[in-house]
């Protein structure tokens, strides 16, 4: 009988996780299958308990459920500190363990682009689940963070949490232009610009500067409006593809104990994005 894995989120129709993980299972000859499941916040506890009861191997958690999932699982120390979960392991049927692989994925993706975050001034847009993981990772790696969010109180709260591992301060969305001018790296952790709203962006080229690294964690589309604006300004664009692949690869290893085929996963996502 196949072992079932999946991703829970709302919306979730856009997710390429099924294509990526199913390609990895096929490459390694594993009798497993991965599906996308639309789950809202009020149904999450039931969905997790049901998946565990039915013998799922594990699930990924995406927006808007990453923080909500903490209520229903035990967490490893990193996920507990971050305060958000994106991977849940069901291998111990009496215990659901939550992990967060987003920070690792972001670190590996930006390193692939030849960027070292240590001692860099980083402006991070958004204060949700993905932002928490990236903020903790990069603050711990020695970056100086400014976290900007439309609801300023959420940015302030996240910055206070992140101060346990490094330097961070929180602000609202005012004065972003001045802050970008002083930044080495700009990271969008929001869903702005994600398919199907591909014309949307928080920042445009006139507020960027040459040499600024612009990292958009959105991977669908591969080149978001924000990254197009970055190119126009002479900034350095980094798309969210490899963060997505690396966070998925880390989840795959947690669930199966196997080293996943990274190139197969990356090429599968690229083909799907082209189609």
From TrEMBL:
Domain SDH C-terminal, residue spans: 240-270
Which GO MF terms are attached to this record? NADP binding; shikimate 3-dehydrogenase (NADP+) activity
Any idea which positions bind NADP(+)? 126-130, 149-154, 217, 240
Q: Which residues form the Quinate/shikimate 5-dehydrogenase/glutamyl-tRNA reductase domain?
A: 116-217
Q: Which reaction does it catalyse?
A: shikimate + NADP(+) = 3-dehydroshikimate + NADPH + H(+)
Q: List the Gene3D superfamilies hit by this protein, alphabetically.
A: Leucine Dehydrogenase, chain A, domain 1 (3.40.50.10860), NAD(P)-binding Rossmann-like Domain (3.40.50.720)
Keywords assigned: Amino-acid biosynthesis, Aromatic amino acid biosynthesis, NADP, Oxidoreductase
Does the keyword Amino-acid biosynthesis feature in the UniProt annotation? yes
- Sequence positions that bind shikimate: 15-17, 62, 86, 102, 219, 247
Instruction: Report the function annotation for this chain.
Output: Involved in the biosynthesis of the chorismate, which leads to the biosynthesis of aromatic amino acids. Catalyzes the reversible NADPH linked reduction of 3-dehydroshikimate (DHSA) to yield shikimate (SA).
Q: Which family does it belong to?
A: Belongs to the shikimate dehydrogenase family.
The protein in question is named Shikimate dehydrogenase (NADP(+))
Q: Which organism is it from?
A: Methanohalobium evestigatum (strain ATCC BAA-1072 / DSM 3721 / NBRC 107634 / OCM 161 / Z-7303)
């Amino acid at each position: 009988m196949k072992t079932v894995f999946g991703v829970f989120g709302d919306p979730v129709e856009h997710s390429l996780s099924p294509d990526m993980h199913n390609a990895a299972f096929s490459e390694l000859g594993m009798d497993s299958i991965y599906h996308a499941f639309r789950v809202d916040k009020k149904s999450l506890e039931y969905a997790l308990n049901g998946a565990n009861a039915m013998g799922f191997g594990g699930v990924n958690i995406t927006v808007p459920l990453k923080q909500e999932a903490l209520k229903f699982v035990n967490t490893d120390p990193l996920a507990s500190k971050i305060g958000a979960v994106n991977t849940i392991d069901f291998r111990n049927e009496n215990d659901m363990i939550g992990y967060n692989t987003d920070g690792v994925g972001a670190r590996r993706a930006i390193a692939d682009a030849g960027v070292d975050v240590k001692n860099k001034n980083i402006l991070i847009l958004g204060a949700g689940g993905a932002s928490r993981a990236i903020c903790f990772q990069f603050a711990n790696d020695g970056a100086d963070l400014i976290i900007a969010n439309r609801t300023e109180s959420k940015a302030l709260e996240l910055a206070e949490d992140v101060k346990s591992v490094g330097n961070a301060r929180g602000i609202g969305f005012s004065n972003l232009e001045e802050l970008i001018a002083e930044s080495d790296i700009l990271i969008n952790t929001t869903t702005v610009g994600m398919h199907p709203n591909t014309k949307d962006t928080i920042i445009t080229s006139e507020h960027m500067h040459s040499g600024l690294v612009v990292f958009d964690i959105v991977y669908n589309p591969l080149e978001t409006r924000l990254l197009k604006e970055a190119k126009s300004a002479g900034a350095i664009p980094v798309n969210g593809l490899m963060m997505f692949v690396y966070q998925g690869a880390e989840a795959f290893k947690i669930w199966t104990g196997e080293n996943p085929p990274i190139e197969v996963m990356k090429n599968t996502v690229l083909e799907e994005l082209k189609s």
